[in-house]
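Researcher: Structure for this, please.
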Amino acid sequence: MADTPAFSLLNPFAAIDLNIDGQADGIKQWAISNRAAIQPIKNFFDAMITGIENALQAVPPGIMLVLVVLLAWQAAGRRVAILVAACLIALGLLDPIAWPLAMTTLAIVMSAVILCVVIGLPLGIIAGKSDRFEVAIRPVLDTMQTIPAFVYLVPVVMLVGIGNVSGVIVTIIFALPPLVRLTSLGIRGVNPSVVEAARAFGATPNQIMFKVELPLATPTILAGLNQTIMLSLSMVVIASMISVKGLGNEVLRAMGRLDAGKAIVGGLGIVLLAIVLDRITQGLGRSARERGHRHWWQGGPVGLILRLFKGPTKSPVQPTLEETE
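Model: Predicted structure, token format:
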């Protein structure tokens, strides 16, 4: 072992060793010895991912395409539905294996987003209500957003091993902060006079939360959900380094073989999937004014079916001057 250099004011760091790498090795040993305690969480995540993937893979591509297009039409209108249909058709035509890989990727993204909502929505509500909690959680969110993904790949793999479960956990760490931040922002952005009016009419705190604050904050919360989905998709290729399946794994394998064709197929598949999810979630986040002051069920395929069953109805048009006379 080389002798420790003498302390010098010009280069003090050469003589100081905090033994951080040795302490990190101790964390590794702790993770290995306590892996059994994390096994139930791993089993739950694995069952969730497998269930969603099996459900998506069981639906024939043609039926899945129609269902997603109808969802896009209901959420964002006919123009977005046409764009979504074109993207899904292009995705299926990229390669015979592109659609199954896309469904696997979608299952991983959906699992991560569902868990982000379960964790992030309550945290965002608490942060929107409590200044102390918001100040305390802000550095944690900053760290989660800025730390490189490769840094926490190793601890996650040490705890739960390689596979889809590790990919979902890594994705949650990376994609959770926008949902927490924008949920807090939406709650704080509610007009205080509206809350005071609800309180004056005798509304309970729970009624104010679920019937006033959350509905008014919904567009901002859905914008955070949109960002969470996009960040989850951006982690697909990085997570494939720990044996996460899907389109990202196809890109990684193509890079290893210098196969430009397969890399383009995987990359374009991720882009098309991102466009589909982005347009649908943006449509869900439209305000009532953007929808023409209509409820969600009054447009799209649901509104069409309701109009067919109810028959033609007179539109509430204001009477003209001739009619009033």
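Researcher: Any notable elements?
Model: The chain has 15 helices and no strands. The chain has a mean pLDDT of 83.
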